[in-house]
Amino acid sequence: MMANARLYSAGQVQALDQSTIAQGVPGFTLMMQAGRAALDEIVRRWPAARRLCILCGGGNNGGDGYVVAALARRQGLEVQLLALRAPDQLQGEAGEAVRFARESGVIIENWHQDVEIPVDTDVIVDALLGTGTRGEIRAPFDDAIACINRSSAPVVALDIPSGLNADTGALLGETVEAVLTVTFIARKFGLYTGQAPDVTGEIVLAPLAVAESTLSESDYVGELLEAARLQGTLPRRRPTTHKGHCGHLLVVGGQPGFGGSTIMSAETAARLGAGLVSLATASVHIPPALTRCPEMMVHEARNGLDLESLVDKATAVLIGPGLGQGAWGQGLMQTVMNAAGPRLVDADGLHLLAAGYAGERRDDWILTPHPGEAAMLLDCSVAEVQADRYQAALNLHRRYGGVIVLKGAGTLVIGGEGPEACFISPFSNPGMASGGMGDVLGGMIASLLVQGLSPLEAAASGVLIHGLAADDAAREHGERGLLASDLACYARRRANPGR
């Protein structure tokens, strides 16, 4: 893992900043580097831009904005700087930035409620609030943020969009909607999950003068999944490999009328390389399953007794899609729960788990809830889950063990207390807002599990492939109308890196 793929809390980034200063790098040098990195990104993306509007608060985030203003003015750009904190009250590096801006010819205007950003502004720079913001956004910042969002000009956020919680990805109120976020020193955890994807736009990391060794030796929260990860984690196959070497997955579910979910799970698992895939489902779904994917072995599951021999033969079991929560689903769930071996529990299986096995804790299973299911498992509200997705996933792991995949934008994978067991996927798109996406994700993760990956690695790689495949499909055909069953062929390509 590269150190720049690590995700940090706001406090950990502040410690990195202080450590770098203690090593002899002046704080104002870091601020100058931040301002230069941001302006370079602005000029690269909008080379024709001539007029910037920069809104500055207090502290170092505001100081970064003053530096951007000074450098832009020195490059001959027109700059409107609106100050929400009296510039003469800024101290330390931020005070130096104010002096630098004035020396560079920047005229500082005080913000007031009647201010409107001129229509001829080419780019707006948000330097209002930094990563330390935790409470509700209050006046005058809420008005300034609303003013920014009313403008049609593109917005660049410095370090983090103002109004976004840097640790959780929750919105604290009115939040700047940026098209580009230039984040400094290290990646903040909250930029990649929760509601953050709605407001960050593209995220660019500017590490400044922080040494790689300082990053690699520091505390962090988790890791951002990267496409290159697949080169080193997916198992290589020898020339003599046969189907018995590639695992046998049993997919259980599909009460009458709900067979599509299990069929998609099973077919996707086969496409990702499981050696054998069996499907235990209601008899009515056997013909369509074999028509859709004749390579799978389909069995009628009348009750839990029909499952016993199938579970014994399987490397792992995926249970839940279309299972239902009635007597039929309960019987199948009981057989799977009584058996040994790894399993993935999803959808209705999670509801049955909460209802009948609340005290069950295992190290070899993977639970894949969406926020609503996570709230049900934790006996809390969806809003509470979304307010701090990391804590919700960690609480699920502490209660149930194993690996937790908390689905949604910025899908989280947590398999332990340490940062080496926490992953976020930055890959997804709004086209994934369609039925069955969770079912194919379960099939991908379970397929990798039976092929020999650990539960944590199977979950992380499966989530990564799922997001990449969806982005590939959307890039080729568009987001609207993207179906879960479209992902299998794209996922297969991603599961064969190097081709």
From TrEMBL:
Q: Where does K(+) bind?
A: 61, 126, 162
Domain YjeF C-terminal: where? 226-498
**One Pfam family linked to the record:** Carb_kinase
Q: How is the cofactor bound?
A: Binds 1 potassium ion per subunit.
Record keywords, A-Z: ATP-binding, Isomerase, Lyase, Metal-binding, Multifunctional enzyme, NAD, NADP, Nucleotide-binding, Potassium
**Superkingdom of origin organism:** Bacteria
Matching SUPFAM superfamilies, A to Z?
Ribokinase-like (SSF53613), YjeF N-terminal domain-like (SSF64153)
UniProt-listed InterPro entries: CARKD, Nnr, Ribokinase-like, YjeF_N_dom, YjeF_N_dom_sf
Q: Which NCBIfam families match?
A: yjeF_cterm, yjeF_nterm
The record's annotation in PANTHER family points to:
ATP-DEPENDENT (S)-NAD(P)H-HYDRATE DEHYDRATASE, ATP-DEPENDENT (S)-NAD(P)H-HYDRATE DEHYDRATASE FAMILY MEMBER
Name the chain's protein: Bifunctional NAD(P)H-hydrate repair enzyme
Q: Which organism encodes this protein?
A: Kushneria avicenniae
